[in-house]
Write a structure and sequence with these properties.
Order of helices and strands: HH
Strand content: under 5%
Number of strands: 0
Radius of gyration: 31 Å
Oligomer: single chain
Shape: rod-shaped
Length: 80
């Protein structure tokens, strides 16, 4: 509430200059939000790449496990 009152007081005293400062502040804030959004996008892309790599690794482990299971079954059959 106090900020709003101060802002309205500034706008009455120096309407053009206050609006310029307000617009500049909004622009800076918007630029910061854009940078944050870009960083979040980069992080999300990195997480996606890591997830894809993890999936590939998991698939390879699954194939290896299946191969080991077949080999174990074969060994068991020969031992019987």
């Amino acid at each position: 509430m106090q900020f709003d009152a101060l802002l309205m007081h500034q706008l009455r005293l120096y309407p053009g200059q206050s609006m310029l400062k307000l617009t500049q502040s909004i622009l800076k804030l918007t630029q910061l939000i854009l940078k944050l959004t870009q960083s979040i996008l980069k992080l999300t892309q990195s997480i996606l790449k890591l997830t894809q790599s993890t999936l590939k690794l998991t698939q390879s482990i699954l194939k290896l496990t299946q191969t080991m299971l077949k080999l174990t079954k074969s060994i068991v059959k020969r031992l019987q």
